[in-house]
Amino acid sequence: MAMEITNDYIGHALQSMEKSNAAAGTNKEMEQTAKECADSQAAKAQKTDWAVVYSSSLKSQSLADYARELAKLAPSVQVKVGRTFSSAKSGKTLTLDPGLLNKMQHDPKMAKDMKDMIKGVEFITKFVDGLYKSSGKTLVYRHSFIDADGKYRCISRVKDGRSYQMSVKLRQERQKNSQKLIAKSRDKALKSRKTQQKKTQAKRMAKTVGRRVDVKL
C-alpha cells in the first residue's frame, strides 16, 4: 500500500518535531532549575547544621564557666553573675547580667565590645586605685555592674584618711576648747556666787548695826 506524502503531512511532521524539541528544552530547563534548588537547599541545610552545632557547643558551656573566662580580662576585681550590684560591704566586684552573657555567646560583635568594656573596667580600677593611694584615700568598696543591654554602672565608698585625721585633731581641739569654756564658766559662776554672798553678808551686818544704834538711843 503506497502512502502519498503531501506538503501538509510534511508541515505537520515538522511542527511535531519542533514541539518535541521545545518540550525537551523545557524539561532540561526544569531539570536544571530543580538541580539548582536542590543544591541551594543542601547548602542551606549545611549552613543550618553548622549553626546548630555552633549553638549547641556554646550552650554546653555554662554561664559560670563563661564568666570565669571573662574574669581573666579583669583580674583586679571579682567577677560575678547576677542581676544587680554586689551587696558586699568591702572589696571590688564586677557583676555581669546573665542575659548579657547569653547575648555575648551568640553575638560575636557584642562579645568583642563587652570584652573591651571589661578590659576598660580593669584599667579604670588600677588608675583610680593609684589616685586614691596618692591622695591618702582608702577604698572601702567599689561595685560595678553591666546589665543585659551592655550598660555599665558603678557605685563606691571611699574613706579619706587625711580628712579623718584632720577631723580627729579638730575634735580634740574642740574638746579642749569646750573644757576651757566650761572651766571659765565655772570660775565665773563661783566668783559671782562669792560676790553675791559678800553682798548678802554686808546687808545683814548693816541691818544688825542699825538695830544696835536704835537700841542705844
Task: Note the main attributes of this structure.
217 residues; disordered N terminus; 4-stranded mixed beta sheet; 5 helices; rod-shaped
Order of helices and strands: HHEEHHEEH
* Low-confidence region ranges: 1-10, 43-60
Shape: rod-shaped
The tally of strands reads 4
Helix run count:
5
C-alpha end-to-end distance? 203 Å
Computed Rg: 50 Å
Gist of the model:
With 217 residues, the chain is an alpha/beta fold. It has helices at residues 7-59, 63-71, 98-106, 108-134, 161-216; strands at 78-81, 91-96, 137-146, 152-160. A four-stranded mixed sheet has the order 1-2-3-4.
Task: Describe the overall structure.
The chain is of the alpha/beta class and 217 residues long. It is built from 5 helices and 4 strands; from the N terminus they run ααββααββα. The chain has helices spanning 7-59, 63-71, 98-106, 108-134, 161-216; strands spanning 78-81, 91-96, 137-146, 152-160. A 4-stranded mixed beta sheet has the order 1-2-3-4. α3 (98-106) packs across α4 (108-134). It starts with 6 loop residues before the first helix and ends with a helix.
Describe the protein's topology.
Layout: H1 7-59, H2 63-71, E1 78-81, E2 91-96, H3 98-106, H4 108-134, E3 137-146, E4 152-160, H5 161-216
Helix pairs in contact: 3-4
